[in-house]
Amino acid sequence: MFKAMLLKEFILLLRDKYALAALFIMPSIFILIMSIALKDTFGSDRALLSYAVIDQDNTAESAKLRTFLLSNGRLKEHKAPITNTAQRQEALNGKLHFIVSIPPGFAQNLDTEQSASLLQLDVASDVKQEMLTLVQAELVIDIIRMRMEKIQEELAPFLPEVAQKLEAMKSNRDNLIQVRFNAMGINKKPTSTQQSVPSWIVFGMFFVIIPMSTVFISEHKQNTLMRMSAMNISVPVLFAGKLAPYIIINQIQVWLMIGVGIFLVPLFGADALTLGDSISGLFMVSLGLSLAAIGTSILIAVTADTVEQATTIGGIINILMGAIGGVMVPKFYMSQSMQQLTNISPMSWGLEGFLDIFLRGQGAGAVITESLTLAGFGAGLLLAAGMILNAKMKRGI
Amino acid sequence: MISIKNLVKHYNNHIALDHIDLNVGKGVILGLLGPNGAGKTTLVSILNGLIDFQEGEIEIFGLPLSQELKAIRKRSSFTPQSLALYDNLTVLENLRFFAGIQKIRGKELRHNVEYALSVNRLHSLLDHKAGILSGGQKRRLNIAIGMLNNPELLYFDEPTAGIDPESRTNILETIRSFKNDGKTVIYTSHYMPEIEKICDEVAILDRGRIIRHGLLEAMLHEEKADSVVIELRHSYEAQLQTLARKYALVKVIDAATLMIDGPDATQLGAILAALEAEQIDVKQIRYGTTNLEALFIQLTTQGNCDV
């Protein structure tokens, strides 16, 4: 019986090119695009902030400050001439994030003990606070370096050993701090692929709503369900007959997306996906997600009257769950209250489970809660759908 | 084969079946007739265990329906009015799927599929998707699916709706042939000539009650022959409706047939004069309810049907 149902669902799905596109091609393309688009955001090579310098001091010291700023890969200098307030405002409304003004007397004031400001920083209004802090820190470091160099020069004739020590201290500030991302190797970083693949796997899995509800509503409308019922197929058996093929379809989706992350994404210049260490954890999360997605699909299919209704409602629910659940905008970009809100979306539970495995390198034990919550959610929806369908069929609807 | 005693079904305050008693013997083809809303589909759905009922007892194959539904379903089949099949599966895939879910396998599967194909003349369409078949071919496939479990009892709910005359004839021949195999058929239809052509017995349902049940031949002879049927050479629908509004005794059976209930000579004369005045060409005038359609219209209170 299950073999017949399985075969039927597969044939119907394989002959539905739109469903195939929604289930397999769309999430693959999302993974590819997002991994490539966000590649530099997660990497360190791209200049994040652009700035200009107005040097009114024109000394060796002011030139040195400019050199220091240039050596920071996160900052990119624009050499547009800025001579008046209007140009300054125009530049900050356009492509510049900061303008560093070096006033006359900068070199002179560098080694004095006065507490007056050495530099002026004009900031574009859309610059985030953490970016401002980054630039301020960079400028403070550069000023301290320049002051240390001055002290070093002054000490060199009298205390050459101390001067040598100071010289040694200057070398390669990047090596001073060792960075280790949680559950990753020293100086290894999470990549855009590690972030994108789990998100779009989750999103893609929920797209079973479209083919499932299309087939289910057609079956209902054409009385195929009624005919099956007259052939001794009960509602639980009917649901089990849907569950089995779509769990397999979901698993195929998961491994296809993983394949895209491992093999296809690197061809376009982004980092390849690494799987983590827990295949069993991966199966647990994807199985829980399957149940949640199929439960949602069947409940929508049972309550909607037409295919159009089901696909519209299904599409909206999918997008809402994705937006709330951190699929479209990563959770860490959200405010605290929004991060709390993500917890209501089953997509968020699945996403956290996948991130535990892909990104945080955790094992099956860490994803038991997410997997069981998802499975329970799916089972609850299936139960509700079963009761609704039973009632509808008994009333001859 | 089927025994129904005191069956009651109501939807909230509406009575769909009102204390129905009906017995159908083995090998009988029973035509279930009734105007829209009479309760035909409700009755067939109850007999297939698809909807519940409030009162009464039903036995099929000598087994109580409430307790032995699964066993009864294995020996019967239901062909709904709608085309309950998968448009995106081929004819063979449809048959294999519906056989598969009934756990029909191996030799039995091959034999039953072959039987369903040959009886319904579907061999040449095996690899065609159901969605591209003609209306008649789809109807035949719909029936073929209902034959896969080699049932002893078959229910057909308007199996010829919306198809061409040739396909209808083929389907009726197929259903009639089931009698030769000793199968019992419950056949609901609005097409009276179909019922006359294939059924041995007729049960007429009206407002949830069976108002007549018996052998078709006997029923037609037993009815009082106090009606006059006027058959016309051509269709005159508008004129006949005008006539029916003018004379309360006149019932329009179709665009070319009138029936007059118990007319006296004066009224009959007036009606014939009115026909002549409208230049309506009369083909034949006869007494009595000589066909099922006339009997049906005479018996049912609504006096209309979807012919």
Structural account:
The complex is a heterodimer of chains A (397) and B (307). With 397 residues, chain A is mostly helical. Chain A contains 17 helices and four strands. Helices cover 64% and strands 5% of the residues of chain A. In chain A, helix 4 links the parallel strand 1 and strand 2. With 307 residues, chain B is an alpha/beta fold. In chain B, the strands form three sheets. A six-stranded mixed sheet of chain B has the order 6-7-8-3-9-10, sandwiched between helices. In chain B, a hairpin with a 2-residue loop joins strand 1 and strand 2. The two termini of chain B are 30 Å apart. The C terminus of chain B is likely disordered.
Summarize, please.
Chain A is mostly helical and 397 residues long. Chain A contains 17 helices and four strands.
Keywords:
heterodimer; A: 397 residues; mainly alpha; D-Maltodextrin-Binding Protein, domain 2; four-stranded mixed beta sheet; 17 helices; 5% strand; B: 307 residues; alpha/beta; Rossmann fold; Alpha-Beta Plaits; 2 domains; six-stranded mixed beta sheet; four-stranded antiparallel beta sheet; 11 helices; globular; disordered C terminus
CATH evolutionary superfamily of the largest domain in chain B:
P-loop containing nucleotide triphosphate hydrolases
* Radius of gyration of chain A, in angstroms, nearest whole number: 30 Å
List the strand order in the largest sheet of chain B: 6-7-8-3-9-10
Give the CA-CA distance, first to last residue of chain A: 25 Å
According to DSSP, the number of beta strands of chain A is 4
How would you spell out the order of helices and strands of chain B? Answer: EEEHEEHEHHHEHEHEEHEHEEHEH
Number of helices, counting only DSSP H or I runs of 4 residues or more of chain A: 17
Using a beta-carbon cutoff below 8 angstroms, give the protein chain pair with the largest interface and the number of residues from each chain. A-B, 28 and 34 residues
